[in-house]
Amino acid sequence: MTRPQHADRPAKSSRRALLLGLSAAIALPLLQGCFPVVATGVGAGAAMVSDRRTSGTYVEDEGIEWKVAARIRERLGDSVHVNVTSYNRNVLLTGEAPNETVRGQLDGIVAGVENVRGVINEVAIAPNSSLTARGNDTLITSNVKARMIDSGAVSAHNVKVVTEANVVFLLGIVPRSEADAAAEVARTSQGVRKVVRVFEYISDEEARRLDNPTGARRN
């Protein structure tokens, strides 16, 4: 897969207010631990259908996130703050570790989880971030997603946004044009100090094929 690249239109206030309001409502429970929230019910079904990953890979990614987070917690406890994001079975790690030795252990923990294809370790050597900082990152993520919707240049369904210490990581299976559009939206969003691309690139033709599958949903 492609390695990370360290690299306005007027807002529609009603949609952005809704997204930011939802973010504020869920921020506190999200900040209580490093485990990802798994979408369930109708919301998960809708997200799965619109996603460019196969339905099987979508479910695998959710499971990978839970397994990796649980093993990190079991092995390292509160000595680290690590967020785990799996996309198309490639695992992005963000957060903080106390030293390089502990940071290096994370790679082995992830590699030991079934179905993982690769690891992108972006964990910083630093003290664990504060709840205030994590809340700010959550709001930045929501703002970037809202601005993607407003821009009309890229579908928020096709780009996953993760923010850590004001750095925005972008994941997805996208053509270069979508990657550039998403990166520009993120780069020009308030509070963002850097954008890191963690995309898998495909052709425009392949993107159209994935967005308009014929027959049954891919498994």
Automatic annotation (TrEMBL):
Q: Which SMART domains match?
A: BON
Q: Does the keyword Signal apply?
A: yes
Keyword flag Signal: yes
Keywords of the record, alphabetical order, are: Signal
Q: Where is the BON domain?
A: 60-127, 136-203
Protein's recorded name: Transport-associated protein
